Amino acid sequence: MAATSRVFVVAVVAALLHGAVAGKTKIEFRLTFDSIPDKSINHATAYPQVQTTTIDASGVGYDVTNDVGGEQAKWTSFLVKQQGNHWSEAGNITFGSSGAGINFESFGLSGQVKNGPATGASYGAITYNISGGYGAYKGADGVMVDMFESDGVSPSFPISAWGFFWIDA
Is the model's pLDDT at 126 over the cut of 60? Predict the structure, then answer.
């Protein structure tokens, strides 16, 4: 047991030293926003939730538990350019009431929308550069991707955003 404890302590200390040497802290997020677009501006809110992916012999499964408590994240973005079914976008996400947030801009016309399985439905994805931040996330540098689907009937639709960024430690 003592040897196992020492190995664990060494691994933890090595991980802490690696972060200290690099001088950066990595922050990762996966959020589902309820999006309400208004012409070329998009406002969305994400609430705390637990997302679970399972893999077993029958395939892949996904479950979301909502109402887990906590604060909201707010998304605001605007359309920069559109060509056919491709677009570029820029905006920000503010995490909670502390005022900490990130700025993002798409990598060129990286957004693409496709026709969905039902009439009027659509889905798509876009990639972003996290190009700075504010509050505790000032100087953020990283990447983000979002995927969405619209049933073509409801004015709102979910945006699934996943990203990570580094800030000074």
Answer: yes
- Name the CA dihedral angle for 42, 129, 69, 158, rounded to a multiple of 10 degrees: 40
Is residue 62 included in any domain, yes or no?
yes
Q: Tokens for 98? A: 């502390």
Q: What pLDDT, on the 0 to 100 scale, is given for residue 85?
A: 95
* Inside any domain, residue 38: yes
Chain CA centroid to CA 46, Å: 10
Distance CA 153, CA 46 (A): 21
pTM of the model as a whole: 0.81
Give the total number of structural domains in the chain. 1
CA–CA gap between residue 95 and residue 159 (Å, rounded): 16
66 lies in a domain? yes
Distance (Å, rounded) from C-alpha 40 to C-alpha 125?
17
Name the burial class of residue 61, with classes exposed (0-12), middle (13-18) and buried (19+) by CB atoms within 10 angstroms of its CB: exposed
